Every structure is written in structure tokens, then in C-alpha cells.
């Protein structure tokens, strides 16, 4: 019996890394197993694969008539085409479950931040050594899923796993995570105009035409390096006020580039406004950017 | 958070022993946990509890508003009343699953013969020593669920667990299992007539009025010790032919006490008939007792 191991469609770093790490564990325990991906590997996972020199899993097109292991998902809507005619032999996951089987199968679900935390546990339980590159991938997935332990889903078990894995993978947790997040959220392939319009909404505030764009990235430096180009584009628009918020989810705040009087921005976000200023705690357009600007513009 | 740990309604030996063993493991790991039973402890489990000097779990009447751990079952129909208002935090089971949760919880399901095999595995994974009496209960449950490894659900993992546990519990697997099965299937509290009529069916075979009773027990000796009393009762009935099959599921055959000519019994079951004769391989009334007797009676 050869096992196909895969995560969910539109795979994230956990889906990619957990399929590789569990396949390796199965191999060490004497089972034939091979990782697959149900979609293109995204930038963040690709960074981890490159860093630890591991090949990306092959793309799986059809699970029909195969013996499969599901990682990082358990709901049929998220899994491979042809799953109705596949033989699900095992599930390893950290999500809420919606599972119904005809026969007993192996199921391992734990309420932790990342599937890879469970898989690391399984290595330990089976006394199988975690090699350097597998440690690196497990670590990458846990840091990704827990957003460097900032996600409320983070548990002590996730943190402990990362501590141990970082020693095997020989990386500093903080700096490796930031490097990976930067690579994963890089906007390098987009133009100034594309970034401003990526998630852009228009509002009427006290008769003024106001536009607010927001992007989430951790590759802040390369955005701020082009601050003048952003500003030139923003100023060339015919909005009365335009604010581009570059939101850093780790620092939990947004860098602001704007077409507006400094006083409006200072009033709205309690900052000493200048182009590229960091507005601490401001991460939501709906709950912070829009109401704060509405009030500040009305009071000008 | 104090955990209530329990198996299914109408609890078998696995449900009782796995709730006690998992509670002990939780306690060793620093969690408050207590075993409960969803019904009266049956004779087999009571034998194991007596043998290893462990108190029976208290009866649980209502799980409402409690933090609960389900062992040896996962379907809501089999679990405690009030479960809809309970907080299920963990499931350890070896059955097919029908689980749907709102949030991620701990789930450990493995396709092995007994929940206690999984729990023994969890002791090892957590490096928690299995004490004598817990080893005895785990062993009892595995022998019970696998019917001393005769059940097709038995896996190598179940056998290996029993080997290791029998050393800690200081018992011989075969003889302990037989003693437990005897206690569990004892018919001591029933009268001769009750035993004959326990599962009794009447047939017409070539114009003869034929009755066939069947009981499953491993306490064969105490039945055969009363052979003459059974025979006196059987002969006093007005059936033309009456066969009582005392089926031994471990030896896979039935001891026969009968009102019939020896030749009919010899022909029907290829034995040298005498009262209490063992008919090897004969375990099914529908597939063996009825058709074989029908043919033998027709050919007399």
C-alpha cells in the first residue's frame, strides 16, 4: 500500500510542510508514502523549501482509487477531486472536524496552532530523529500558522516545538520568521498603481471624495524605499484625500502614505504625521481607518 | 477544569477499563479527571475490577455543563444524556467515526482491536509508567474486545500490548483470559429451564416437532456438571427432538445435550454422539444446526 499524503486545496505553508514531514515519518516507519500538493506552492512555502533545499511536492490531480492521508484538513470540500472513490486511511489535523467514516481509520486531531506541531509530536512518540531539513519545514509551518505566536490559536505546545526545532534547523526563530513572512508577503511583482488599487475603497466624508487603499505585507522596507513614487502617484489622483495603509500584522499597525493635510492624519491617528508614519494599533479599515478619518475630516 | 471520562452506554469491559486508565494517565499528567460509567458494570468487567482490586467507576446520570472525554465511542446516540450541553474536549476511540465539532478538539482514533490498546500507547508516548492494576485493566479490555485475539479486528499492536501488559500485571494471558471469559459468560444465576429457553426456536422437520436452544458461554464445566439435570428436563418436554447447543466461541464449537437418537446427532454433526458431545466448528443455528438436523432427520 503506497500512501498519498496531502493538505488542502490552495495549500498554505502548513499543508505543504506537513505533507512532506508526515511522508518522511511514514517512510522511516517502513511505509511507502509520498507528499502531494493540491495546488500551486505559494511564495511563503516556496521560501521555506528553498531555504532548506527540499523539492516542492508534485501536484495531485485525482485521488481516485488511491490510499490517501489527509493533513491540515478533514472536510471533503477542501480535499482532492475523486476523494469519494479514494480510500482515506488517516487524518492528521488541527481544525474543527466534520468526519464520517464507514470503517475505523487513524485520526489524530489536536487543538494546537499547526498540523506540524502534531507531526513533530508523532516523530517524538515514534522515536524517529527529525532531520535538519524536516525540522526547518516543521518550524516554518508552525511560525506561519501561528503568525510568530501572535495568533490566538497558538499553544504552549507550538512554542515548545519551535524552540526545539529551531535548534535542529539551526535558525533564530524571530529573524527566520520575519525573513519568511517578508518573502511570503512581498509585493515586488506589482506596480505602484496595482498596489494602491489592490484593495481600494472610495468614501464621501463631509463632502470630500476620500479613497482608502490597504495592503498587508511584512516586506515594509521595499515599500517605504519607493515612498516618493507612491506619493507622486497618489498626489496625481483627483481624490481630495487618499490614504494608503501598509499594514504590518506582526507589529500590529500601519504605515501611512497619504494625500491629505498632515493635521488630518495627526488628528485621525494620534500621530505626529509625516509621509510613511507608523500608526500603532491601526489594522482595520472598517473599524479604524474609516471612522477616524471621517471624524478628523469633519473637524477640520 | 475537571474532566469526566466515560465510555458508551451499556458499558463493556473496554468502556469501563479505558475510562479508568485514561483518567489515571490524565492525573499523572497533572489534569483533574475521574472515570464514570454510563450503566451497570457487567460481570466480565467486574471480574477484572475485583482481580486487580480497583473500584468500579461511579454511575454518571447527566453530562450537562461538564467537560467530558469520550472513550470507546464517538456517536452521540451512545453517549451520556445531556451531551448537547456538555463540552466535549477529547475523544479516544477505535470505532468508525461520526464526529462533527464547532471547534478543534483532541481526537485519537486508531483502527485497532480495543481503545485500551490506544491508551497504553498514550502512556508510552507520555513516558508515564503503567501501574500494576492499570496494566491489568488494560490487558483485560484488550483480551475482551479481541476475544483473546480471535476477533478479526485484532491487530499486531493489540497482541504486542497484551504481551507487555501481562508482564506488568503478572498474569498468564491464556489462563487469565479464560478465567475472565468464564466469569463474564457464567450462567450460574439461571435455572435449567431458563437456560434451555434463553434463545429457543421450534421447527418442523419431516413432520417431527424439533426444538433447538442455543447459549453462548465459556463456563462450560458448570453446565456439563449439570448434564443429567438438563437431560431430565429436556426429556420431559413433548418435543420429538430437542437439541441444546452450548456454544464455546473460543474453541469454536458447541457441546450438545439432546433428546434424539444418537444416530441423528452422529449423522448431523459427524460426531460419535453421546450426551455432551463436542461438535467442532458448529457455532451457528441458522447455518449449521438447523440444516444439518433437517437433513439427518429426513434420512433416518
The greatest interface between two protein chains, and residues involved on each side, is: A-B, 21 and 22 residues
Sequence of secondary-structure elements of chain A: EHEHEEEEEHHHHHEEHHEEHEH
Structural class of chain A: alpha/beta
Distance between the first and last residues' Cα of chain A? 72 Å
Mean pLDDT of chain A: 96
Helix content of chain A: 25-40%
CATH class of the largest domain in chain A: Alpha Beta
The number of strands of chain A is 12
**Biggest β-sheet: strands ordered side by side in the sheet of chain A:** 3-2-1-4-5-7
Largest sheet of chain A: 6 strands, parallel
Give the amount of beta strand of chain A, in percent. Answer: 15-25%
Low-confidence runs of chain A? none
Q: In the CATH scheme, what's the topology name of the largest domain in chain A?
A: inorganic pyrophosphatase (n-terminal core)
The CATH architecture category of the largest domain in chain A equals Alpha-Beta Complex
Outline type of chain A: elongated
GO molecular function, one term (chains A, B): metal ion binding
Cofactor (chains A, B): Mn(2+)
Domain DHHA2 (chains A, B): 177-297
Protein name (chains A, B): inorganic diphosphatase
3D architecture notes:
Two copies of one chain form a homodimer. With 300 residues, chain A is of the alpha/beta class. Chain A has two domains: 2-184, inorganic pyrophosphatase (n-terminal core) (Alpha-Beta Complex); 192-298, Roll (Diaminopimelate Epimerase, Chain A, domain 1). In chain A, 40% of the residues lie in helices and 23% in strands. Chain A contains eleven helices and twelve strands. Chain A has helices at residues 13-28, 43-51, 115-125, 132-145, 156-169, 173-184, 192-197, 220-224, 227-236, 262-269, 285-298, and strands at 2-9, 32-38, 58-59, 67-71, 87-93, 98-100, 106-109, 200-205, 208-216, 241-248, 253-259, 277-280. In chain A, the strands form two sheets. The first copy, chain A, has a six-stranded parallel beta sheet. The first copy, chain A, has a five-stranded mixed beta sheet with strand order 8-9-10-11-12. In chain A, helix 4 runs antiparallel to helix 5 (156-169). The termini of chain A are far apart. The model of chain A has no long low-confidence stretch (mean pLDDT 96).
Amino acid at each position: 500500500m503506497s500512501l498519498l499524503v496531502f493538505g488542502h486545496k490552495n495549500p498554505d505553508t502548513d499543508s505543504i510542510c506537513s505533507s512532506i514531514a508526515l511522508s518522511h515519518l511514514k517512510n522511516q516507519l517502513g511505509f511507502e508514502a509520498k507528499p502531494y500538493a493540491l495546488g500551486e506552492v505559494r511564495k511563503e512555502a516556496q521560501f521555506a523549501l528553498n531555504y532548506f533545499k527540499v523539492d516542492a511536492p508534485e501536484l495531485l490531480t485525482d485521488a481516485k482509487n488511491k490510499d490517501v492521508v489527509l493533513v491540515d484538513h478533514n472536510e471533503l470540500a477542501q480535499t482532492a477531486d475523486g476523494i469519494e472513490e479514494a480510500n482515506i486511511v488517516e487524518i492528521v489535523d488541527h481544525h474543527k472536524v466534520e468526519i464520517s467514516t464507514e470503517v475505523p481509520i487513524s485520526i489524530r486531531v489536536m487543538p494546537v496552532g499547526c498540523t506540524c506541531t502534531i507531526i513533530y509530536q508523532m516523530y517524538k512518540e515514534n522515536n524517529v530523529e527529525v532531520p535538519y531539513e524536516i525540522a526547518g519545514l516543521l518550524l516554518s509551518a508552525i511560525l506561519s500558522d501561528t503568525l510568530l505566536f501572535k495568533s490566538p490559536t497558538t499553544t504552549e505546545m507550538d512554542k515548545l516545538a519551535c524552540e526545539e526545532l529551531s535548534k535542529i534547523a539551526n535558525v533564530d526563530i524571530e529573524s527566520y520568521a520575519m525573513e519568511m513572512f517578508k518573502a511570503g508577503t512581498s509585493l515586488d511583482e506589482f506596480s505602484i498603481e496595482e498596489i494602491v488599487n489592490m484593495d481600494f475603497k472610495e468614501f464621501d466624508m463631509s463632502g470630500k471624495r476620500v479613497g482608502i487603499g490597504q495592503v498587508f505585507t511584512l516586506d515594509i522596507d521595499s515599500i517605504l524605499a519607493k515612498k516618493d513614487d507612491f506619493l507622486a502617484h497618489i498626489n496625481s489622483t483627483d481624490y481630495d484625500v487618499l490614504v494608503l495603509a501598509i499594514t504590518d500584522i506582526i507589529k500590529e499597525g500601519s504605515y501611512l502614505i497619504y494625500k491629505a493635510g498632515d493635521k488630518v492624519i495627526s488628528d485621525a491617528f494620534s500621530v505626529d504625521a509625516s509621509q510613511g508614519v507608523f500608526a500603532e494599533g491601526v489594522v482595520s479599515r472598517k473599524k479604524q481607518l474609516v471612522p477616524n478619518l471621517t471624524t478628523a475630516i469633519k473637524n477640520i
